[in-house]
Design a protein that fits this description.
Layout (H helix, E strand, L loop, with lengths): L2 E9 L2 H12 L5 E5 L4 E8 L2 E8 L5 H9 L2 E8 L3 H10 L10 E2 L4 E6 L9 E6 L3
Protein name: Methylmalonyl-CoA epimerase
GO molecular function, one term: metal ion binding
Family: Belongs to the methylmalonyl-CoA epimerase family.
Amino acid sequence: MKKIEHLGIAVKNMEDSNALFEKLLGVAPYKQEEVASEGVLTSFFKNGPNKIELLAATEPNGPIAKFLEKKGEGIHHVAFEVEDIVGEMERLKKEGFTLLNEKPKKGADNKLVAFVHPKTANGVLVELCQEIGK
């Protein structure tokens, strides 16, 4: 794993949260994108080398809606940049981690993504992400 790529934060209202984080960080989001397959609307902020992804549910039974219902707004995941997502997934499986998906899938912000189950990572949902085309 190369570095923390971003923090994902689950929010109830994207418009209100975009305004709040724009005030907090002093920058506007550089991208907003819907990932229909996951039932989520994303919004990305970059402040120096750091990125934050806001996640709002678009489907009542999607993973973000379920997270918000169970835990409320807050940090949803920590994403790590990897050079070889398939290789990293294999390495983590050999180390005893449980993955939530067997193959990488297309995520937001031009990334392939995979997730480590929080039960095997001290309660933290870990996202692996690799830029598509690298």
